[in-house]
Amino acid sequence: MTVELLAAARVISKPINDLYEIGKDRFKSKLQKVKTNSNINKIHKSISSVHKVKTIWQIDKAVSLKRFYYPSSLTIDNKKTNINSISKIPTNGNIVIQGIVGQGKSIFLRYLSYQEINIGSRIPIFFELRRIEKK
Questions:
Q1: 48/5 same-domain check
Q2: What is the pTM of this model?
Q3: Which tens digits make up the pLDDT trace of 68-100?
Q4: pLDDT digits 0-9 by tens, 26-41
Q5: What is d(CA 95, CA 82) in angstroms, rounded to the nearest whole number?
Q6: 74 within 8 A of 88, measured Cβ to Cβ
Q7: 27, 92, 108, 112: which has the fewest Cβ within 10 Å?
């Protein structure tokens, strides 16, 4: 580098650094907002997909639970209760939903998660144990 170029770089570096410092926070907040909106869209897409399932009649494409779901009922303290939202389930301790394979336990929980999304007061977290891997 020549001496003139080094001198010019020193003269220009202060205003450039000042400009960077001024713009850094402004651009950082805008970039954070864009990242947040992107994450919110991903979360929304993930949560709203909980009501889409593949069925034995439609294996290639997921369909909405609303097209085939029949309301479930639970036996709680020897009393049969229709359940259409999580708030209808008593919360005095842990709950075990028990049944044989294919009885609809996962579909029932997907339905309850979807109902929570529609109500909008809570964000449901739905995951199936069969999909959890050691990784």
A1: yes
A2: 0.60
A3: 888 888 777 888 888 888 888 877 777 788 888
A4: 777 776 766 677 777 7
A5: 16
A6: no
A7: 92
How many CB atoms lie under 10 A from the CB of residue 65? 19
Q: Which domain holds residue 48?
A: 1-65
Residue (of 109, 115, 114, 112) closest to 129 by Cα position: 109
> What is the per-residue DSSP string for 24-90?
HHHHHHHHHHHHHHHHHHHHHHHHHGGGEE--SS-SSS-EEGGGT---EEEEETTEEEEESSGGGS-
Q: Torsion angle of alpha carbons 70, 75, 81, 84, nearest 10°? A: -50
Residue with tokens 């580098």: 1
Whether 59 and 73 map to the same domain: the answer is: no
Task: Judge if 44 and 97 occupy the same domain.
Answer: no
First-to-last alpha carbon distance for the chain, in angstroms, is: 52
State whether 33 and 13 are in the same domain. Answer: yes
**Cα(54)–Cα(51) distance, integer angstroms:** 10
